[in-house]
Description:
Chain B: InterPro entries: LipoPS_assembly_LptC-rel (IPR010664), LptC (IPR026265). Chain B: Residues 218-240 are annotated as: Disordered. Chain B: Keywords: Membrane, Transmembrane, Transmembrane helix. The complex is a heterodimer of chains A (159) and B (240). Chain A has one helix at residues 65-68, and strands at residues 20-24, 26-30, 35-46, 49-62, 74-89, 92-102, 107-118, 121-131, 137-140, 146-148. By secondary structure, chain A is mostly beta strands. Chain B is mainly beta and 240 residues long. Chain B has helices spanning 39-42, 48-54, 56-63; strands spanning 81-83, 86-91, 94-105, 112-123, 129-140, 145-150, 152-156, 161-164, 167-170, 176-178, 182-186, 189-199, 204-215. Chain B is globular. Chains A and B meet through strand 1, strand 2, strand 3, strand 4 and helix 1 of A and helix 1, helix 2, helix 3 and strand 13 of B.
Amino acid sequence: QGTGVSDAFRGFGANSNDPIQVEADAFEVQDRDQTAVLTGNVQVRQKDSTLKAVKVKIFYEGKGVAAAGSPGAQQIRRFEADGKVVINQGDQTATGDHGWFDMRSQTAQLTGNVVLAQGKSVGRGEKLDVDLRTGVYRLTGGRVQMLLEPSAPAKPKTP
Amino acid sequence: MTDIDMDLDSRMVPAQPDAARGQVRARHAASRHSRRVRLLKILLPIAGVAIALMVAAIVALKSFLPGINMPGVLFSKDGLTMVEPRLSGRAKNRAYDVTAARAYQSLDNPKVVTLEKIDGRIEMPDQTWAKIEAKHGRYDGTTQKLVLDEGLSVVTSNGYRIEGALANVDLDSGRMTSDRPVTIDGPAGRIEAGGVDVTDEGHAIRFTGGVRMNLLPVPAKPGEPAGGPAFRSNSAEAGR
């Protein structure tokens, strides 16, 4: 049994190798139930993407580092954002009351007064479902239902 | 409820600012609006916690204390100063070894010992260890509280370094708090916080007073379970 909070889990990122900056008023890690909560003006940035929310709760898994001595492999399984959730990347912004990201299924969802803005076009709905692998979104439940299709898979950016 | 698959039409009526007109009318044939939407795909922000857990290093700090008792400190008969006191032993399967350049008893309260140049090392059951240094500390035998309040730093075997201005440690409960800035640096990145509160033997750590973290991607070891992605850094990408 690891001795307490083990090494940082390596975090998650869509296989990108960009560092992630996180800011919040407070941050609490409960290793026994493998959760961590960021509260208050939570901001998370990775390259040109940002997530903002009042609170973000993270569920992680993985063995403790201390037990193995080597940095433990820990990964985020899922995280949930609550309160004025704003996700922005480039000219695309999605806002909603709640959101979750599930790493295993590589899906995400935003619910509650969802507004998806892209450039000048705006869609409103109650639920935005996202497939993180393909980038396909489905905005449903509002007056306007919109499916934003990716045209061609993004070429991997060479560093 | 069927979802109408409508592609966005770039000539679509621009969104009206006020909410009432927020409706987008996309009835006319939409030319294939092929803007690649990768909004969420790229954004997987919350690795933040990666660092937070870096606080493993804190485990070392909190394990430093429960179980250490000082009453055994002998004081030379001619004075109240003890030079290079050493204290080692086992507490809750942690081996510790603490030395100080000087320790002296306060006259008004013999149970209070002031320590200078503290140098401690803790060995955890799983062979991880932590080295703790502090320029100044104060131990109170009655309250079993130790305050390390100058030049406090902890280095751990898994490559983390904690620096703080102050640490209040309750030897009984093992709780460690600081209401002064603390920084943690290590392989997974860096955390800066205005204060920290470590309880439950290090299983619960709360950073307060504003937290900033910078998480570095860590290459996943081969054979990494597919599960949640750890960062994969491709070979080309060395540290920028």
